[in-house]
């Protein structure tokens, strides 16, 4: 009887719990490729998840009837606000199970940041201590060609989201990610602390953009394709993670999506966990 009395005495909290459960289940189903059919430009699953999140947001913002809410009411509103944040977190910007067209546009939207990061890499060699510049240049020599190819493939997929253009993008994003991971490990060998820090910080920008695109490509790929992509990786994320700055990556993601850095930190960590679990 306690469960029923709690529902009766705390209707908003109970409703929030149900909505949060809906968002969680929808997220899991979306990650497993379950759509329950199309709904507009997306799927039924993403529509249900979005509606549940919106309703949870309304609950979190619903004002109290009294002019001065009680401490318990404030506590309840705080909890609802936290649940709203969790619901938003569950719908990560670059792994949310949106339609192929939406994801394709998001991939293309990441390409300016990728090209900017690669341009920063190109100009970094002159800032390093002279003995360290050749090592950095050798580690990053293929970035320009790899980024140009990935950008072209992303635009080709947006224009024609076919199996062949997706396969080309899958192969290229993994190839580029492996180049970036190798560059991180090579730059970690730079002896001069200032040069090493500068080199790794610059590569971090490329790494963040490439891994965001990788997560997006994963979200529209079949399980078999993701397994094939992961099998092609020889340098795993866990090997390069100690040399990268999670906060720097979060700031880049936050700037891209126009969201708080704290939320972006959680999103980056969650996306990384998904990629590691997939075998990357």
Distance between the termini: 48 Å
Strand content: under 5%
Spatial strand sequence of the major β-sheet: 1-2
Low-confidence stretches: 1-8, 62-68, 85-90
Shape: globular
Count of beta strands: 2
Number of helices: 13
Q: Whole-number average pLDDT? A: 78
Can you give the helix content as a percent range? over 70%
- Structural class assignment: mainly alpha
Defining key terms:
280 residues; 2 domains; 2 strands
Please give a structural write-up.
- The chain contains 13 helices and 2 strands.
- Helices cover 75% and strands 1% of the residues.
- The chain has helices spanning 2-9, 11-31, 44-61, 71-90, 100-124, 133-139, 143-159, 163-187, 193-219, 223-231, 237-240, 246-257, 261-278; strands spanning 38-39, 42-43.
- It is an all-alpha fold and 280 residues long.
- Residues 1-8, 62-68 and 85-90 have low confidence and may be disordered.
- It has 2 domains: 2-90; 100-278.
């Amino acid at each position: 009887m306690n469960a029923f009395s709690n529902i009766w005495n705390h209707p908003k909290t109970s409703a929030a719990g149900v909505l949060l459960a809906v968002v969680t289940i929808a997220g899991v189903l979306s990650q497993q490729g379950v759509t329950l059919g199309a709904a507009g430009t997306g799927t039924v699953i993403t529509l249900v998840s979005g509606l549940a999140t919106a309703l949870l947001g309304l609950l979190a913002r619903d004002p109290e009837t009294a002019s001065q809410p009680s401490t318990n009411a404030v506590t309840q509103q705080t909890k609802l606000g936290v649940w709203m944040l969790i619901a938003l977190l569950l719908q990560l910007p670059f792994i949310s199970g949106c339609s192929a067209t939406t994801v394709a546009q998001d991939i293309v939207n990441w390409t300016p940041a990728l090209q900017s990061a690669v341009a920063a890499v190109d100009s970094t060699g002159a800032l390093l201590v002279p003995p360290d510049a050749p090592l950095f240049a050798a580690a990053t020599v293929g970035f320009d060609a790899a980024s140009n190819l990935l950008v072209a493939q992303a635009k080709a997929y947006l224009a024609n989201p076919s199996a062949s253009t997706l396969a080309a993008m899958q192969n290229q994003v993994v190839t580029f990610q492996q180049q970036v991971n190798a560059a991180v490990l090579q730059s970690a060998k730079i002896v001069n602390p200032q040069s090493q820090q500068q080199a790794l910080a610059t590569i971090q920008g490329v790494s963040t953009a490439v891994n965001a695109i990788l997560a997006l490509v994963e979200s529209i790929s079949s399980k078999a394709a993701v397994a094939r992509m992961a099998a092609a990786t020889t340098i795993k994320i866990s090997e390069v993670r100690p040399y990268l700055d999670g906060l720097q990556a979060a700031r880049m993601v936050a700037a891209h999506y126009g969201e708080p850095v704290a939320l972006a930190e959680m999103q980056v960590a969650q996306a990384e966990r998904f990629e590691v679990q997939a075998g990357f």
